[in-house]
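Researcher: Last one for today. Full complex below.
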Amino acid sequence: ETGVTQTPRHLVMGMTNKKSLKCEQHLGHNAMYWYKQSAKKPLELMFVYSLEERVENNSVPSRFSPECPNSSHLFLHLHTLQPEDSALYLCASSRNQGAGYEQYFGPGTRLTVT
Amino acid sequence: RKEVEQDPGPFNVPEGATVAFNCTYSNSASQSFFWYRQDCRKEPKLLMSVYSSGNEDGRFTAQLNRASQYISLLIRDSKLSDSATYLCVVNADFNKFYFGSGTKLNVKP
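Model: Here's the assembly. Have a good evening.
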């Protein structure tokens, strides 16, 4: 399935590095999301974009910076991360934002911060 | 209190068995509900939405009980390929989606 793609699939970075995660959706959806999934924890919603406008920021530290240049692309810029930021970062999209709209996930980027 | 709670399991069942999972949610104003399955080291995949009247998709049946604030998933005639973690998702506010920690199912031959 190639509805939502993410690159890279795996990333190892040091605490002083800067990197970006990329997500692209080919479903014609208007809303995109970033989630974090840590081991033994439920998915945590980080950011929501609707029609390229950020509509939700779930108290995420500023070392995570999202960008949505158009409704098909979503980035997560990372800088000065901490080891506890190691997790699976999942991108999702839905037809529109809000209740009732099913989300479709990309394969995720497995991030390790050393 | 967690927004969404699930029994982590694992539920170990033989092939052909019927198994049911429940998920409770805390926000009575929650508007939409979903079940996802997640295979090991893979992304969550939508299994089904849960409608107020209940809905069925092949061997899978989902029910919503608003009065008691829980949703359920019933799997009949379990297959080996049903082995996965099942995630309950609740949309409690316009943009707030809460995921349960998941219930692990192992279907044994």
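The longest strand of chain B covers residues 84-93. The mean pLDDT of chain B is 94.
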